[in-house]
Task: inverse folding
């Protein structure tokens, strides 16, 4: 065995160790499935044996009535065989579905433990694939794969037993075909594997070439290079066809070879068996049964060869799943979480440095105290780090240097969920789940009654437009809230925050897309909510900032100015320019 | 189905020699194959007669006949399946060629991933129709006819008994098949629901964490997960019956054959050998019955996929005359030079395929007029969505005017072969796309035969030479997906160099300097100014500093209907002192630049 083979073997075994525990609770299903396999295979194997009895004991002696007894017996056998096969398929699928359900549950559950940064690195499509098609591929390994192999082996064993019982000498001669078949299968696999690899590579090359053409189609056409590009494509296309023809050749040779092995086996049975009949060691019926068995014999062996490829695919999928399940959550609750001594709603960022990657600082040396009940507005140009600042308070990301304190306690000492329950957050781009408007306000929080949610909807000015929806607040929203305008979605986000009785409010440009009319009403409501709560407001609008106790100006990741609106305006520095850019009437004229 | 074959036949027709040869091989393979039971029949009869010494002769015959079958089986597969690969090659070539020629309007309608899956999955589904989709039905028909012929020859009455189960098999398969189809659709829909939950969960990862909703999300997922497992088992309840039922029915036929055939044998109506041969023929019929459902499936899927391929094959490429009109030799005319004119142009972007709105798309340009004199440098500015890029893109016919005409050198652009038109326009698109090849090849993309000196010159002009020398392989550095990742500014400068290399009388820059810092910008602008001296130049810009030196600046703004109109026009200084929209925009940009520096 070569080194890569050994490595593959080790990998396979490691994967099985992770996956098998999922099968353990359901071992009874598998046991039942195997028992039923035995019955079903027995019924299948009995067919040719009955032919033997029919020929030798009845046709040969002219006993036509005995044939009906055999038929009766055979019909009974078929019924049992059918029921067993059906039951087996059912129970094995039940097993597969249960295991997949559990794995899928764990995959999803584990994803919930991973921190926000993980999602920045893993595209959504990949996450979905892990929980869906990869788990499905695993099913091939767990149910169909394993059970099919067991079925094939049992069938093979049954046939061999029947043959040995009828005439062990002829049986042994017949078995000579088995090594021949395995050798043929082995040679075939050795040939087909590089051929398949070549196909995979050719397919990938063609696909990425076409993808590049499609992405750059405009440049390609403007610079009139279609003919040249088509020439390059021809080379890849030719390789694609050549690679496939390779596999066609492999199969074209393999099937006739198998056919020949079968034929030689039949010929040997006829030739050798004929002699045995001459010497009285074999009956004509047994010979016919031998011939029928030899036809049945080859199917499971061929199947076993093909199953091998499916299993390889399943293993690759399980490798990806195991990798995901082994991903450590980047942020987790401490072993022994503490509770703050006082719950006053104070916030502190203590010399905080943060970067999404490495030393690409997004926030540098941020120092900010928010007193209990205070409202602090954060303003800054696009990319100044405002949203990041808000995320750090909830420990959605981990600071690299410094510390974040909530209620005077470091967020790393809080139980993660208790910490996050202290906050209500409204994001600029409000994410909506499929479900009704009310569902989206409650977000599955059992502590929020329907009446609470309705009141919040009222206060956030949702009710006005929700009335026009077919079922009011109970109208189901489509995928990602399709059908709602950006402004309407922000209102849902605000209602969400209003329905929660958290002590700290974080608004991230919460009303940037709400029209002025609605904005005014929402402001009034927000004013009520903000009262007696600590709040951090990232603002886009002057009206929001005016009510703030303090304004913090974030610029290029640093706090550059702090003060009231009038103080800052008087300074005539960053804030005054920001003010002119963002808040003056001209701001309506958004360039860019 | 008809449409599928109408489209496929021409591809197959090219290989009619191979197809014919493959079909002949198939026929011969089956003939030899069907002879084997005949040999067995004679062997068994000989045994009954006690002629056991002739058995090895029969054995030899079996091997000989099977060898014939095996050899022709090889040819059958190699030719018939091989042909499907050759035809696929041709189809892929045509598909690709068509994709390349389809205009922007088409590509705007279809996502890249969508077209890719058409060129991969759908193409393969159609290929299956040509390979297995042809081979297996023919094989089935021949086998069925052959088996029936031999069975009828042995005993018509026994044949009737044996095939009595066949209609039952077909009917049951159809009923079960439909049930399975319906239930698997439900299962697929449930799987889509699961995907949607995961998709939403991942998209809202921050929200879920911020609101500590992990558990309620788990509950949502649990419900969908259970529902999926439940529906899957409902499908299994039917699908698990399919194969066992088939086996049982076939076994039933076998039992009937055995009993009835046994009676015939004891009565002496048929020999034991004939009964054995009959049983073998009966066994041969099993596979075609199973394969039939599969073949139908291949054809159905192929037809669906062909429909998706047809959307590309039937799309109209840009209409363009094959040669310059007689009276346009020497275009663009020396007198008129490469002047550009928009004559009452109306244009609207086509509605995306998904939109179900009946309302006609709103025009971006309506009766739009513009004249750029030969050698003039004109800049277009305005807010996002004001239509300035659209104007630029109408000139090289990335889009075509709906009403009115765009003229270059006095000629409607639609009267000029599109290759001739584009050869005269050096266009720098907004998205500065580079191919995964060396920088040298990228810069020389429009002039593959350009000299090294020429390439170095434009690289220097675009302010790129220094960057390239810093790369490990200099001009041979491969960029793009499989190579070095360039910064946005480097890509834009490469795109500019690529355009400057063209010896074209018209230069168009479609908002290309947004991703470079102001220092690089001024260097590039100097190069562009030099290039613009000899060319008719249109600069579409977002940053106003880019256009300060233009002969004329046009500010586009939407009118009441949302269509673009020229709101202000003049030189930079004129517009600033006019104190209108341009002046306001300019002040804002100055302010932003100031902020950046703070």
Result:
């Amino acid at each position: 065995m070569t080194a890569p083979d050994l490595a593959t073997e080790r990998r396979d075994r490691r994967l099985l160790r992770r996956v098998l525990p999922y099968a353990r609770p359901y071992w009874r299903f598998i046991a039942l499935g195997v028992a039923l396999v035995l019955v079903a295979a027995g019924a299948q194997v009995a067919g040719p044996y009955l032919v033997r009895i029919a020929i030798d004991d009845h046709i040969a002696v002219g006993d036509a009535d005995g044939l009906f007894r055999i038929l009766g017996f055979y019909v009974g056998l078929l019924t049992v065989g059918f029921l067993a096969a059906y039951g087996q398929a059912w129970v094995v699928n039940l097993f597969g579905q249960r295991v997949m359900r559990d794995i899928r549950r764990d995959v999803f559950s584990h994803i919930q433990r991973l921190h926000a940064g993980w999602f920045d690195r893993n595209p959504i499509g990949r996450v979905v694939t892990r929980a869906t098609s990869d788990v499905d591929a695993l099913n091939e390994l767990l149910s169909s794969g394993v059970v099919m192999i067991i079925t094939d082996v049992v069938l093979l064993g049954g046939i061999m037993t029947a043959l040995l019982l009828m005439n062990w000498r002829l049986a042994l001669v017949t078995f000579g075909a088995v090594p021949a078949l395995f050798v043929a299968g082995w040679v075939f696999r050795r040939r087909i594997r590089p051929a398949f690899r070549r196909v995979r590579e050719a397919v990938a090359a063609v696909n990425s070439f076409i993808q590049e053409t499609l992405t750059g189609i405009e440049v390609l056409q403007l610079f009139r290079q279609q003919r040249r590009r088509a020439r390059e494509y021809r080379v890849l296309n030719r390789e694609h066809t050549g690679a496939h023809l390779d596999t066609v050749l492999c199969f074209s040779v393999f099937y006739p070879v198998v056919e020949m092995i079968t034929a030689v086996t039949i010929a040997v049975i006829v030739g050798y068996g004929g002699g045995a009949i001459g010497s009285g060691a074999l009956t004509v019926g047994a010979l016919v049964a031998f011939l029928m068995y030899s036809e049945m014999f080859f199917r499971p062996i061929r199947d076993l060869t093909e199953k091998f490829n499916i299993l390889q695919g399943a293993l690759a999928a399980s490798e990806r799943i195991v990798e995901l399940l082994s991903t450590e959550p980047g942020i987790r609750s401490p072993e022994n979480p503490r509770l703050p001594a006082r719950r006053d709603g104070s916030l502190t960022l203590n010399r905080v440095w943060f970067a999404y990657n490495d030393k690409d600082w997004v926030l540098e040396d941020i120092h900010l105290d928010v007193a209990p009940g205070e409202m602090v507005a954060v303003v800054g140009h696009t990319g100044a780090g405002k949203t990041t600042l808000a995320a750090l308070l909830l420990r959605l990301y981990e600071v690299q240097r410094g510390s974040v304190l909530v209620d005077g306690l470091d967020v790393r000492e809080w139980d993660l969920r208790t910490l996050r329950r202290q906050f209500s957050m409204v994001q600029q781009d409000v994410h909506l789940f499929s479900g009704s408007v009310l569902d989206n306000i409650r977000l599955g929080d059992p502590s929020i009654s329907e009446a609470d949610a309705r009141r919040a909807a009222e206060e956030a000015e949702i009710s006005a437009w929700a009335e026009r929806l077919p079922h009011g607040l109970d109208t189901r929203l489509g995928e990602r809230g399709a059908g709602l305008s950006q402004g309407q979605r922000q209102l849902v986000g605000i209602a969400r925050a209003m329905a929660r009785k958290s002590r700290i409010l974080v608004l991230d440009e919460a009303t940037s897309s709400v029209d002025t009319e609605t904005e005014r009403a929402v402001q009034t409501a927000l004013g009520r909510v903000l009262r007696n709560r600590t709040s951090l407001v990232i603002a886009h609008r002057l009206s929001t900032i005016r009510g703030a106790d303090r304004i913090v100006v974030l610029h290029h990741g640093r706090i550059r100015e702090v003060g009231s609106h009038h103080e800052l305006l008087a300074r005539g520095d960053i804030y005054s320019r920001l003010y002119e850019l963002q808040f003056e009437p001209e701001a309506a004229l958004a360039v860019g | 189905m008809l449409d599928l074959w109408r489209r496929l036949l021409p591809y197959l027709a090219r290989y009619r020699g191979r197809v014919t040869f493959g079909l002949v091989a198939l026929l011969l393979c089956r003939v030899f194959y069907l002879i084997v039971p005949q040999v067995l029949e004679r062997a068994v009869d000989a045994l009954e007669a006690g002629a056991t010494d002739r058995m090895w002769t029969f054995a030899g015959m079996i091997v000989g006949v099977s060898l014939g079958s095996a050899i022709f089986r090889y040819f059958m597969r190699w030719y018939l399946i091989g042909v499907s690969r050759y035809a696929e090659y041709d189809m892929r070539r045509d598909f690709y060629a068509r994709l390349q020629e389809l205009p922007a309007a088409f590509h705007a309608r279809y996502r890249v991933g969508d077209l890719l899956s058409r060129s991969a999955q759908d193409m393969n589904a159609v290929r299956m129709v040509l390979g297995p989709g042809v081979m297996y039905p023919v094989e089935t028909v021949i086998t069925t006819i052959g088996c029936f012929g031999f069975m009828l020859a042995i005993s018509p009455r026994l044949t009737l008994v044996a095939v009595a189960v066949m209609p039952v098999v077909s009917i049951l398969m159809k009923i079960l098949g439909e049930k399975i189809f319906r239930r698997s659709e439900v299962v697929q829909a449930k799987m889509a629901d699961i995907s949607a939950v995961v998709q939403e969960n991942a998209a809202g990862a921050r929200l879920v964490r911020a609101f500590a909703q992990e558990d309620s999300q788990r509950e949502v997922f649990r419900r969908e997960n259970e529902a999926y497992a439940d529906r899957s088992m409902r499908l299994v309840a039917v699908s698990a019956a399919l194969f066992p039922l088939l086996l049982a029915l076939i076994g039933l036929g076998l039992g009937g054959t055995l009993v009835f055939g046994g009676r015939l044998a004891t009565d002496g109506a048929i020999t034991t050998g004939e009964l054995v041969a009959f049983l073998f023929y009966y066994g041969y019929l099993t596979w075609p019955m199973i394969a039939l459902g599969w073949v139908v499936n291949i054809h159905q899927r192929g037809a669906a996929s062909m429909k998706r391929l047809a959307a590309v094959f039937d799309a109209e490429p840009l209409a363009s005359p094959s040669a310059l009109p007689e009276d346009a030799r020497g275009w663009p005319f020396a007198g008129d030079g490469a002047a550009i004119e928009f004559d009452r142009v109306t244009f609207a972007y086509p509605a995306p395929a998904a939109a179900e709105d009946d309302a006609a798309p709103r025009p971006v340009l309506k009766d739009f007029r513009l004249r750029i004199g030969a050698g003039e440098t004109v800049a277009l500015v305005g807010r996002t969505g004001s239509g300035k890029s659209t104007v630029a893109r109408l000139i090289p016919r990335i889009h075509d005017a709906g009403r009115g005409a765009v003229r270059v050198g006095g000629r409607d652009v639609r009267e000029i072969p599109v290759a001739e038109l584009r050869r005269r326009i050096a266009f720098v698109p907004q998205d500065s796309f580079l191919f995964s090849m060396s920088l040298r090849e990228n810069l020389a993309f429009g002039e593959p035969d350009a000299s090294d000196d020429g390439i170095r010159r434009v690289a220097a002009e675009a302010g790129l030479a220094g960057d390239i020398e810093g790369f490990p392989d200099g001009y041979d550095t491969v960029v793009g997906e499989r190579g070095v990742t360039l910064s946005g500014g480097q890509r834009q400068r490469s795109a500019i160099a690529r355009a400057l290399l063209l010896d074209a009388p018209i230069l168009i820059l479609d908002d290309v300097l947004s991703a470079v810092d102001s220092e690089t910008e001024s260097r590039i602008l100097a190069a562009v100014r030099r290039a613009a001296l000899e060319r008719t130049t249109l600069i579409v810009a977002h940053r106003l500093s880019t256009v300060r030196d233009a002969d004329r600046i046009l500010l586009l703004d939407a009118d009441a209907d949302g269509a673009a109109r020229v709101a202000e026009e003049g030189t930079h200084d004129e517009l600033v002192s006019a104190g209108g929209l341009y002046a306001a925009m300019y002040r804002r940009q100055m302010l932003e630049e100031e902020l950046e520096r703070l």
About this structure: Confidence is low (pLDDT under 50) at residues 353-358 of chain B. Chain B has 20 helices and ten strands.
